[in-house]
Each structure stands twice: as C-alpha cells, then as structure tokens.
Structure to design on (707 residues):
C-alpha cells in the first residue's frame, strides 16, 4: 500500500502591544478551538509554535490553555517549536539578540510545557544563508521555510517531500519546505480535495512527508474562517478524514520525522521568504507588474516559467518605507547602548525592552497592516525608548545631560544630527529640509514624530480600476483578493511628496487652501521642503543651540528669486521644551509676497475619533476637538494637543498670531479585513503671510512645552 506522512506546523502570534480585546477574540476564535479539536482527535499529531508575547498573555489571562497544551505535549501528540521570543525577523537583528531571544523562548517552553524544543519557527519564513550557523549555535536542529526557497535553486515540488541539510561554515541545520499548494488547500478547499492531493503524493516506500506550516490564526481568526472552520466544521471533517485514512496517511511532528528519517540531500538556499512576501517587498510599481504577470502565467498553466520567477528581498522594506528604516536603525543604536551597559553591570539595562522593540510586525507591510498599524508602531518605539532610558541611566552619572552627534544614522551616505538627552531626543535630517524625524519625550518613552507618509501601494489599483467589487460569498484566503472595507475610499487616495516629519518649511501662494494642501494638489513656491540645509551646533552652558540655514529660491511672478531661511533651535539640559526661532530673508533685489508655512506632524494616537486625544485653544470652543478633526483657525497664539490615556499634553506657543490648519494624515491601508483609512498622525501647519522688500527680514518664534 502507498503511504505518506503529513507534517502540520501551526504558528501562533500576536504583536507586542496589540489590544487586549484582540488577544481575547483570537483566543476564542482560533487558539482555544484548535486545542479542543486536538483533544477530541488524539491521533492527530503535529507541531505548534507560540510566540513569547502570546505566551505571556496566555500565562496571565488564560493559564488553563497552557495546561491543556502541556497535556497534549506529555502524551506525545504535540511538539512545541521555539523561535525568537518576541517574533523578530531574525536576519534583521544582531546575532547576540538572535541567540538571546531564542534562548529566552526555549527556556519559557521548558517552564510552560516541560519540553525541550528541537525545531524553530522562522518568523515570516525570512531566510538568509548565515542563519544556519546562528541557529545551530543556538542548539536548533531543524526549521521550516517555504517551498519557494527550494524552487529558487531549481528544486521542483516532487523533490520537497522531506527535509534537506544546509550549513554555514560547517554548522548544519535541517530545513523543511512548507508546501504552498497545501497552504492554499488547508482550510480553503474541500476536505476531499486535500485528501486526494495527499493520496497522489503517497509512495510504496511510505517515507515521504508533505509539510504545511502556516499561521494558526487562519483557523478561525481571519475573515470568515471561524464560521468555515468551526461552525461549519471544516477542521472536524479534516481531522476525521485523516483518521479514516490512517492506513496510508499518518500525521507526525516535524521533529520526530527529522529524527527518524534521513535527509533528501544537501542544499544551499538563497535569501527568500514566502511568495507573497517577496511580491510585497518589491517597489510598488514592480509589485503590481509582478502580480499581474504571475496571475496571467498561472491562468495559462505556465508552471515551467513560474518556477523561475522570484519577487523582491525582505530587506527592501527598509528602502520602500524610510520610516521602517528609521525604526530599524533606532533599534540598532539602542542595541549598542544596552550591550555597552551590560558590559559594566548586571542590573536591568533594558535588554528585554530592546527585544520587545524587535517584534517584526511594524517593520514591513503586506496583506496585514504592518507598519501602517499606528498603535503597534508607537509601542515599538516605547519599548526601544524604555530600553534606551535604562541603558543611559547606567552609562551616565549625571541626571541632566544633553549631547549631540553628526553621523550617518540611516546609512544613506548623508549625515544626520542626533541630539540625545535625559529629557528629550531629537533626530534631525539636514539633507531633507532640516526636518525632525524623531522626537522622543524620554519621561513618557514616546516618539511624537512616529508618523507615516501616504504612499502608493499596489493594492490601490483596486480603487483606481473598479468602483465596487462584486459580492463573493466563497471563503477566500487573505491572499486571494482585496476587499473594500470602507466605501468611498477613492476620494481619500492622496500621496505625499515628502516624508511626514516635523519642522518642514513651505512657501505657498494665496490660492492654496486647506483642501488642496490635504490632497497635495497645491503649488510649492520654494525649494526648502526636502532640500539640504547647512547645520551647525554650538554648546552653551545651558544646553545646545542648533542652527539650520538654506540659501534657496522662491518662485514669484514667474521668476526664481533668491531667498534665505534660518531656523535656530534651543534645547536646555534636563528639560524637554523645544524652542525654534525662524528668520526669513529676502536676499534678492525684488519685493516678494508669499505665505510661509511651518508643518509639524505629530502622532498622539488620535485615530478613530479617540475621545482621549484632543486639541485645545485658550478662550475658544472648538467645533471638533478630536485629533483626527479637520479645520482652520485664525489669529492663533497658543494651542494644546494631548492624549489623556498616554498622559501627554503639549503646549504650542507662537510669538505672533498665525493662521493654523489641522487635519489627520490618513493612509489607505490593506489588512485582513480589507481596505480602509488608517490614521498615521495629525498635521499642523502654521501660516504667516509676508511681504519682504529686498534685504528685509521676517522673524517668528515658537516653542513646544510638554507637560
């Protein structure tokens, strides 16, 4: 009789800092039902992985589930996989953190389930060749990647019913390839189709294994899957069908198979992930082209061509989204501080906070919200700043300190100015408008500039090319198609010309309206927004004086006229107040009239009409005080914005009356549920009309006072 093994590996994870109600809902919809199903079907044996952030929640809120999983482990039905504790993309973090996070989760698995894992779940199956050495060093014997990885070196589906040995500098690792075909069959197609596929792969020798490793959340948490998997009984029917065919079909944990069966051979895999991730990692235009070409070839049945197609490279997310690169480089900078502190003390130097800040979820974007998830982005920075605070407290004896460094922080060949202090951190980009791209309130462990620009995404074509999708009642994978969660989105589809940072300098014409500014359909008269400023720093007894200036041009009466912008920042040691003084100078020989605009993008988690996040103007009752409100105010000298839940309020004071625009920066983002607007920050633009004769100057001062 022909036989085959089935290796199932279910990965479970929730982002660090995700909402408690999300944990609870996914627990009821996916995590608990699967364990109950396994208890009803003791012959179904498989591999399970739980990230540390999820284990922490379960231990605190649902410890009974951990006990029930432990029972399955003790009776040999389930094996537990380890991984990076907070589910980092392992190639993107330093080796010391790789080893540390793996050791932490391995220890937690031992404590929770009395089990020593031999296998590792690789976050998002992002593989780079050097991982083999590090994982072997961590005591890992096997891991799971995608069949894509193998196909990119020329191995077809028929060669993937087993595992291979790979190595780096002689350190060996066993590698399974999860079948994309099975990922798309389970649980989306009829049970009989899955069984039929497995039957066709069975052999007389009976040593083959078909592997399906994927997210456990797809069994109940993804849209429509709770009804499909549990209420309509797909999982029950599937497990029953496997049991009915036990004469030729046997489930087995991957670690047991790796122990009992020899490898298929030796292999060296390229940098890769699953197909969809490689598509998402491409530049937007290329991603659209790739997806369209792939769809056409699949319709034509051209697997002979498809097998040689590959998408992008995970690390390109650091290019595609500069905000991701900033977060990643912040993580590396904090890593250096934490390990420096650890070299001199055994006290808490923020190591676990650093590891929390390495959780992969906000460092990329695909069908899930990823970097567009504003709250998760903010939590990542909170953890990194907490780690930095702890490390700095060990490295510096002084309580009030302020220092600066010019360095190529973002690794683009140009220097940034990094200002660190016990009260405030400012990262300034002289090459791009002298803007502030990170603004940390150290006592709150919060980055006010944690915003994201509105950029084209491949899935925006759905809005551009069709008015409304036809209804489809079939249960779909989250990769099958794009749903529109919110109607009327197309009118909100706007793209920014520059990164949404702070202290951006605009020169606008009199016909520029708030609506035009929101839609990015206005004329920029100056060349100051994203162009280079000269930068000088002077140390004073009280703190730092930072001078930024640019000799640029304004378009006026169809002529390009010389103009100078100077902005001086004053920072006081031990205080988080930020003072800015502007001096605008007409350096030409023609009188110029224009409107000067100072743009500040601040994220205080004001999306969804958050009742805890607010604007306030002394002596004025706002029609809408929410941070995601839109409006224009006149003769403003003071403005407050804050979030009571965060415990943060900031007072903006201007030394003369200005007009003020406010609006939410909302990106149209794709998630499991479909396309929707997602708040990324609140934009404030301070406007001051001017008329300057040749040689004349205009001065303006403002200050930000956190309280």
């Amino acid at each position: 009789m022909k036989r085959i093994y089935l290796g199932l590996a279910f990965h479970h994870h929730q982002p660090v800092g995700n909402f408690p109600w999300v944990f609870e809902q996914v627990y009821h919809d996916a995590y608990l039902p699967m364990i109950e199903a396994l208890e009803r079907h003791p012959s179904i044996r498989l591999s399970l992985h739980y990230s540390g952030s999820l284990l922490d929640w379960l231990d605190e809120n649902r410890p009974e589930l951990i006990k029930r999983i432990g029972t399955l482990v003790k009776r040999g039905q389930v094996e537990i996989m380890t991984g990076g504790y907070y589910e980092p993309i392992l190639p993107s973090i330093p080796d010391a953190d790789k080893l540390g996070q793996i050791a932490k989760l391995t220890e937690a698995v031992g404590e929770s389930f009395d089990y020593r894992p031999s296998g590792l779940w690789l976050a998002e199956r992002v593989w780079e060749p050097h991982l083999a050495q590090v994982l072997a060093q961590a005591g890992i014997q096997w891991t799971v990647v995608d069949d894509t990885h193998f196909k990119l070196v020329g191995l077809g589906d028929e060669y993937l019913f087993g595992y291979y040995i790979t190595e780096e500098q002689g350190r060996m690792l066993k590698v399974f390839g999860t079948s994309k075909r099975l990922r798309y069959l389970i649980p989306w197609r009829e049970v009989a189709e899955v069984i039929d596929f497995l039957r066709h792969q069975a052999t007389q020798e009976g040593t083959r294994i078909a592997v399906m490793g994927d997210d456990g959340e797809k069994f109940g948490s993804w849209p429509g899957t709770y009804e499909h998997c549990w209420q309509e009984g797909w999982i029950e029917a599937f497990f029953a069908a496997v049991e009915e065919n036990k004469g030729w079909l046997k489930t087995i944990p991957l670690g047991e198979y790796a122990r009992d069966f020899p490898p298929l051979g030796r292999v060296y895999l390229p940098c890769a992930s699953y197909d969809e991730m490689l598509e998402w990692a491409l530049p937007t235009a290329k991603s659209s082209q790739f997806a369209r070409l792939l769809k056409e070839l699949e319709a034509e049945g051209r697997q002979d061509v498809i097998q040689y197609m590959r998408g992008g490279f995970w690390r390109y997310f650091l290019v595609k989204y500069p905000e991701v690169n900033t977060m990643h480089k912040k993580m590396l900078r904090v890593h250096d501080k934490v390990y420096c502190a650890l070299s001199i003390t055994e006290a808490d130097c923020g190591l676990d906070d650093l590891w929390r800040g390495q959780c992969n979820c906000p460092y990329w974007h695909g069908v899930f919200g990823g970097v567009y998830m504003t709250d998760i982005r903010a939590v990542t920075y909170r953890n990194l700043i907490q780690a930095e605070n702890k490390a700095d407290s060990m490295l510096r004896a002084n309580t009030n300190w302020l220092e600066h460094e010019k360095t190529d922080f973002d690794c683009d060949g140009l220097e940034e100015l990094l200002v660190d202090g016990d009260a405030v951190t400012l990262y300034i980009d002289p090459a791009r408008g002298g803007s502030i791209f990170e603004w940390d309130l150290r006592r709150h462990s919060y980055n006010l500039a944690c915003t994201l620009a509105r950029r084209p995404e491949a899935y925006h074509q759905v809005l551009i090319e069709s008015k409304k999708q036809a209804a489809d009642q079939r249960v779909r994978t989250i990769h099958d198609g794009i749903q529109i969660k919110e109607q009327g989105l197309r009118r909100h589809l706007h793209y920014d010309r520059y990164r949404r940072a702070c202290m951006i300098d605009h020169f606008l014409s009199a016909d520029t309206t708030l609506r035009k500014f929101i839609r990015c359909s206005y004329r920029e008269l100056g060349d100051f927004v994203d162009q280079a400023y000269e930068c000088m720093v002077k140390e004073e007894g009280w703190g730092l004086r930072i001078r930024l200036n640019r000799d640029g041009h304004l378009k006026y009466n169809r002529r390009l006229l010389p103009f100078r912008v100077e902005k001086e920042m004053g920072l006081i040691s031990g205080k988080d107040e930020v003072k800015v003084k502007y001096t605008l100078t007409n350096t030409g020989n023609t009188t110029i009239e224009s409107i000067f605009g100072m743009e500040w993008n601040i994220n205080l988690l004001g999306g969804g009409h958050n009742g805890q996040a607010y604007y306030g103007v002394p002596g004025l009752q706002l029609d809408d005080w929410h941070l995601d409100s839109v409006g224009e105010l006149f003769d403003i000298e003071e403005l407050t914005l804050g979030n009571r839940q965060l415990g943060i309020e900031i007072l903006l004071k201007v030394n003369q009356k200005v007009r003020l625009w406010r609006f939410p920066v909302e990106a149209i983002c794709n998630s499991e549920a479909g396309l929707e607007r997602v708040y990324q920050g609140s934009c404030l633009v301070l406007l001051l009309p001017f008329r300057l004769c040749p040689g004349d100057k205009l001065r303006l001062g403002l200050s930000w006072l956190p309280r």
User: Anything to note?
Assistant: The mean pLDDT is 95.
